[in-house]
Amino acid sequence: MELNQLYAQFNEEFRLSKSRASRIEFYTTLNFIMKYLQPGDRILDIGAGTGVYSKVLAEMGHKVTAVELATPNVNKMRESLKEMNIDIFEGNALDLSMFEDNSFDFVLCLGPLYHLSSSEDKMKCVQEAKRVCKKDGIIFFAYISNDMVFVTETMLYNPNFLNSNHYTSAFKINDGPFCFMTVRKMRQLMKNNRLHKLANFAADGLSELMEDRINSMSDEQFQEWLNFHFYTCEKPECLGFSNHIVYVARNKKG
How confident is the model at residue 16 (pLDDT cuts 50, 70, 90)? Predict the structure, then answer.
């Protein structure tokens, strides 16, 4: 499915806000952003979707530039964020030539790797994020866990998944329109690009698998569950069993 068609039907903002369980990804990612973001940082949000993170960061007073490939998402941003201090571009993560080298202090790449299947495109995406990020700047790369998708498809969405041709004998989920990576593959991609790891965290953990139970929690129970998730989300043994994983890197150039 072509991306414009996909995002004409799929509401990324709703995905991150529809319930308590779905908001865990947003809370966790924002928690780590605030850990590394510095006052005055100029931010680039690549693959910004409908601008969920751009909006929050602009409201905090940061200068934000958002780039998004899917036209329906760009149109939503331009309408909903038109009063905010956000520069919005329709563009591709593989070609950020509208920006000079070393233009941004802080780069979010929280969507593009979801749709890049080839090793060459993944490498180009990472290289472009590195190029526009200043030396010693921070870059967030999100990806979808191959292994957790196998679990959620089997247990939640497709009762015939284990009898299907949606995965290989090596349990690699077939790509399209979303693309999937293992923790090991992502670490290798970061190593190949000489990116210095600061953190690696499970953004949503078990929240999709346990959505009904989490949504039924009291306020106090949910807060304690969120605290537990924050406690476990960086543990290496927990990383693969999260639908979305984020690698935080420092851009050590040269």
Answer: confident
Q: What is the DSSP letter of 80?
A: H
Q: What angle do CA 91, 57, 225 make, to 5 degrees?
A: 110
Element (H, E) at 108: strand 104-109
**Cβ proximity of 23 and 93 under 8 Å:** no
CB atoms within 10 A of CB 165: 6
What's the chain's average pLDDT? Answer: 94
Q: What are the backbone dihedrals phi and psi of residue 194, each rounded to the nearest 5 degrees, phi first?
A: 55, 45
Residue 32: exposed, middle, or buried by beta-carbon count in 10 A (0-12, 13-18, 19+)? buried
Q: How many domains does the chain have?
A: 1
Average the pLDDT over 111-131 and give the result. Answer: 97
* CATH code, domain carrying 17: 3.40.50.150
Tally the residues of the chain. 254
Q: What is the residue type of 247?
A: Y
CA distance 153 to 165: 13
Token digits for 147?
């292994």
Q: Which amino acid would we find at residue 83? A: E
In a domain, 253, yes or no: no
Rg of the chain over Cα atoms, rounded to whole angstroms, equals: 18
Residue with the two structure tokens 């905090």: 60
Write out pLDDT tens, residues 185-197: 999 999 999 999 9
Print the domain residue range for 128: 3-247
